[in-house]
Structures are given as structure tokens and as C-alpha cells.
Amino acid sequence: MIQLKPKPRCPWPTVTDELYVAYHDTEWGVPVYDDRKIFEFLVLESAQAGLSWRTVLYKRENYRKAFAGFDPRKVAKFTQKNVKKLLLNAGIIRNRLKIESTINNAHRFLEIQKEFGTFAKYIWSFVGGKPIKNRWKGIKDLPVMTPQAETLAKDLKKRGFKFLGPTVIYAHMQATGMVNDHTVDCFRYHEV
User: Fold this and answer.
1) What is the reported pTM?
2) Which of 73, 119, 128, 142 is 20 to 30 A from residue 177's alpha carbon, by CA?
3) Is residue 190 in a domain?
């Protein structure tokens, strides 16, 4: 039997964690222009603040069920009754401020859609409409935020968004392919 050499990839997904590797290999860094998918990542990135992405990734399907399939129109209609129910849901991160900010952010998301036609048009304008392709040699080279992330986070805050500071926004930009932060030796670097 011929043993295949494993693909070179960014060092953060461990090969023993199949879900994490699959996320890295198929989603992370792929440009996202679908508003619902962008909203999904905003919800998840906001929930992740102060925690590991791996923790949130393992709760993703629970979030999908708890937050109406990441439909911002439905989430914007959530009431305090929904908040109380979500605080009892062990499948998500039960932080009242994060839950309430998700509902608030759904309202703000819809306002931006109305103003720009799509949320994607708005958010992608902060990187000139196309992904920024970085050339990081190692994981230690990756910044935790950039001037674009700071500018976007500041604008989102001005528009009333919560739990989306520059570090969270930069993680969002990485996840949704606004920046290609795969290391140059990763097989995905040249594929996205």
C-alpha cells in the first residue's frame, strides 16, 4: 500500500480534529458574497469573542437551529422570550450580552442591506471589492487586526453593531475570504 504524504496546511488545524481540518480545507478563506452566510459568520465570530474558534465551530449546528438558520429577518424578530429560551440552550454560548447583541446586529444588518442593496456590497467595499492576498510564512506572522479591520469595526460600531471589535472583525475577514491568510506553504493558499 502506498502511503500518501499529507497535504501541507496552515499549522492551526490539528490533523486529529477532522471538523477543524475540514473547516480549514473547505471554508476558511473562501470569499463569501452571500448575505445569509456573511450573517452566519458575524453571529459565530461575535459568539467567539474571548473563546476559541474551535469551541464555536463545534456549536455551529446548535447555533443554526437556535438562530433560525441564520436568517437575519427572523432573528431581528426575536423577543425577550426568545432570549430567555436561548439562555437555557446548552448547545450555544449562554451569554446574555452576546445573545442580545446578535438580535441587535440582525436589525443593523437589515438596515445596511436596505442602504446598500446587499450587506456583501457594503462589507466588501472595505477591501476594494476583492480579497487581499497576504504572504505570511508562518502563523506567528498573522496580525490580530489590520487597518481595514479597524476601519470596518469602527463603521459597524457607528451603525450600532455590538460585539464586533477590530480583532473579531479581522477573524471574520479571514473566515469569509476578504483576506487570504493561509500561509504560503499551505495547499489552500493558491486555491482561494
Assistant:
1) 0.93
2) 73
3) no
